[in-house]
Design a protein that fits this description.
It contains one helix and 33 strands. The protein has 369 residues and is mostly beta strands. The strands form four sheets. It has a 19-stranded parallel beta sheet that branches. It has a five-stranded parallel beta sheet with strand order 11-13-15-18-20, with no helix packed on it. A five-stranded parallel beta sheet has the order 23-25-27-30-32, with no helix packed on it. The radius of gyration is 28 Å and the shape is elongated.
Amino acid sequence: MTTRGVWISLGCLALAAWAGPARAQDVGANASGNWETASIWTTGSVPGSSNNVYIGSNYPADAAATATVTLTANEAAANLYLGNGGGDSGTLNLGSNTLTVSGDIQLGGNGGTGAITESAGGSFTAGSLYLLSSTSSITLGSNDAVGYLQLNNGSSATTSATGNVTGSVSVLAGSTFKMGAALNISGALNVQDSGSVLNMNNNAITGANQVFLGWYGSSAITIDNRAAITTANLYVGNGMAFNLNATDSVTNFYLDNKATSTLSSSVSSLGLSNGAIATTTAAGNVTGDVSVSGGSTFNMGAALKISGALNVQDSGSVLNMNGNAITGANQVFLGWYGSSAITIDNRAAITTANLYVGNGMAFNLNATD
């Protein structure tokens, strides 16, 4: 009993001693001025790496709805909000200094207007950069770096160096992403929604694990000044016409919702769904698997030699062989899956270890098969 009582007491002491991680304190600019001037901040002290900083905001209490703050030394913050609220306007002038933000920088939140200027050679780094309103626009300097960049509501961003974004980029709701240099990211590039623009300015995209072009949302997007794209997974949707060029390097290529493509480079797997159309130009355009579903069409502009499976299924789906042979496939499924027969046009020889035909299809084996 005594031992247990001591254990409970020690446990209570441990709980009392652990108060959890410190919470970042919210600090707002109550006037324009230098970051290093304590009196312009609602707390009366200069914010640092543990503070959420608001410039041009009706929050926190006593913050000024319009303010411009200038760095005269290198500074840091946990998160930074510029122009946070309808009618609010906040500007940060970096001067020749560096701002380090461990979390997010948000420009134009909740209908506000936010801006960062660095005309004297200053720079910033942040975990994420969000441009949230149509008035939000930024050109990233050569030394600026963010892990994640999101553009929303008609905003725009322009890069000037390959290292400006290292992780992922999202371009949403009619926004524009202009590449002033090659883009080498480790995550995903997603461009979606009506009016959204990816202007590559003849710069390559490399390193991305996933690239989504009009795949999400309900509209095609615009790609200007297209250059080579290298990615493990490329997704194109919503009626976009996107041809794979010889300079592209894509492992898995997916087309959905009436998207179309002519392939002039090689992919390992090709997936067509919901009325998509793909046309090959050479025998090596697809090397692994082909999947055609949801009323899509696969046009063989050359012989097809794959090591994996060819699957064509669902009502309205078409395999147009154009008199070209299929060889090497381990499995060929023709109307086997789904609930409807498929159409085969301009049939030629099929060579496969396993052929599966279903759903009422009339398919005769020819002497050349």
